[in-house]
Design brief:
The chain is of the alpha+beta class. The chain is 27% helix and 28% strand. The strands form three sheets. Strands 4-10-9-6-5 form a five-stranded antiparallel beta sheet. It has a three-stranded antiparallel beta sheet with strand order 1-3-2. A two-stranded antiparallel ribbon has the order 7-8. Strand 2 and strand 3 form a beta hairpin. The N and C termini lie far apart (48 Å).
Length: 229
């Protein structure tokens, strides 16, 4: 499902259960040595998805160990993201020379728990949600905004190695196009010589899930025309 909202240069894989046989590397085993069964199953199946996505890039299996703030450590030259929620796990990877960062998130398509909306959104975002409530779309818009912000953070952190609070990005979904924009309220990183002021992403609602994704393409410098000086 995740491949439907990712560009072609991003390889992905997903799973709707934990039946895939995945053998963890020793470093991965150590990362979940004391984890409860649910966490271990999520972790293991997500790594299985990552291995399949890496294979689509022509790469062998490699340990994907959580690093700073839990961000997965990818093989050299690769960027990627993973997500998991009840009934879904996914991973997406790309060559860094083609895509600078990737962010994924999946959530159940249901209302956020009490108190989360107020913590995760600002007044303008909550007003937008109120206008969309009861529109008959079947989309839980509060959950979609939350998921989009999770994808924003996952795309942001590998570029900056800094925390980004929920209030530091303002998300606006496009209900018709299945896209969203995220405007940064803090200075963004410089990517390919340009200051990043926000992100654009895509979303999908299917099989009881809300899934969001961001992929920032590399900007290739234009070559001078033949004969130009």
């Amino acid at each position: 499902m995740i491949e439907r909202i990712l560009p072609p240069q991003v390889a992905s894989a997903d799973a709707f259960d934990d039946r895939e046989a995945v053998v963890l590397f020793p470093d991965e085993e150590a990362a979940v040595a004391r984890a409860v069964d649910k966490r271990r199953r999520e972790f293991t199946t997500a790594r299985g998805c990552a291995r399949r996505a890496l294979a689509a890039l022509g790469l062998p299996p490699a340990p994907i160990v959580p690093g700073e703030r839990g961000a997965p450590g990818w093989p050299a030259g690769v960027v990627g993201s993973m997500t998991h929620c009840d009934g879904y796990r996914a991973s997406a990877v790309a060559w860094e020379k083609e895509v600078r960062t990737v962010g994924l998130d999946a959530e159940p398509n249901g209302p956020l728990p009490d108190g989360v909306l107020e913590a995760a959104t600002g007044p303008a975002e909550r007003a937008w949600i109120e206008r969309r409530d009861g529109d008959g779309s079947g989309v839980c818009w509060d959950r979609l905004l939350f998921s989009a912000k999770e994808s924003v953070y996952k795309a942001w952190f590998p570029l900056t190695r800094r925390w980004l609070g929920f209030e530091e990005a303002v998300v606006t979904p496009d209900p018709d196009a299945g896209t969203f924009t995220a405007r940064l309220c803090v200075p963004g990183p410089v990517v390919d010589g340009r200051a990043l002021t926000g992100f654009t992403g895509r979303w999908i609602v299917d099989r009881g899930l809300v899934v969001t994704a961001i992929a920032v393409p590399a900007v290739v410098p234009e070559r001078p025309a033949a004969g130009a000086r």
